[in-house]
Task: inverse folding
């Protein structure tokens, strides 16, 4: 469907329901689009829906019921169904949706899909918005900041449908995705917002991801990348040693 057709369809929805606000923006990536939506939103909770995902009919209604039932939580997310080329994909054990304090899970993989989530708007005032300088893994980066401070509540129902395998998906345009995740871990370590235990886990995962990336870079003959990520490991190891020495003294 062309852009003109899309605009006409959205305009028809807006005419039918004044609650719907259509905001046009030139394509500047997912982070910029989400950030503009966050700034314009007037509700207490924000839900996101990426272009290749869908909500099941009662997704918002059930999420709202959970928000009322568990007022102590500020982040909710649902189970999801994965489709690719019209077929349901099975999910691995490590894709199991987390509940509670899930920072360690979030370090390993992006364990919460943004389209499944409902996030209290006030959280963005504390942790910041999506990083618009990250073309991919901007959701991984955000979840590190959020889960380092807040628990999440899982709604154990498959209320979100993810359509995979489309060539337009942003993540398919980039190779070496772990370089962006390493950047996100490096950022949160530098922010000094982590507890001692979280910092320990973040350093462990940074070393693991860098080690994997370095092996791949060596095979590809990328000497500058090998040097950069090796130096990054050394820098944080040295920072850690200095911190421990300061505490002992």
Result:
């Amino acid at each position: 469907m062309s852009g003109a057709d899309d605009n006409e369809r959205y305009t028809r929805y807006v005419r039918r329901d004044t609650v719907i606000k259509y905001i046009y923006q030139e394509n500047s990536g997912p982070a910029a689009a989400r950030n503009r939506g966050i700034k314009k939103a007037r509700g207490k909770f924000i839900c996101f829906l990426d272009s290749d995902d869908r909500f099941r009919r009662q997704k918002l209604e059930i999420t709202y019921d959970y928000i009322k039932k568990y007022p102590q939580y500020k982040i909710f997310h649902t189970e999801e169904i994965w489709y690719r080329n019209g077929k349901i994909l099975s999910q691995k054990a490590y894709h199991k949706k987390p509940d509670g304090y899930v920072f360690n899970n979030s370090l390993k993989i992006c364990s919460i899909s943004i389209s499944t989530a409902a996030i209290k708007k006030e959280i963005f005032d504390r942790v910041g918005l999506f990083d618009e300088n990250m073309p991919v893994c901007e959701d991984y980066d955000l979840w590190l900041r959020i889960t380092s401070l807040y628990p999440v509540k899982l709604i154990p129902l498959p209320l979100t449908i993810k359509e995979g395998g489309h060539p337009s998906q942003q993540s398919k345009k980039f190779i070496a995705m772990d370089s962006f995740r390493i950047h996100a871990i490096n950022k949160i370590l530098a922010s000094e917002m982590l507890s001692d235990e979280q910092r320990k886990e973040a350093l462990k995962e940074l070393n693991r991801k860098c080690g994997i990336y370095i092996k791949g870079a060596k095979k590809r003959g990328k000497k500058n990348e090998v040097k950069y990520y090796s130096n990054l490991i050394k820098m944080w190891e040295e920072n850690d040693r200095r911190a421990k020495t300061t505490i002992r003294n």
Strands lie at 45-47, 53-55, 75-84, 87-89, 117-120, 153-164. The CA atoms of residues 8 and 31 lie 24 Å apart. Residues 223-248 form the longest helix (26 residues).
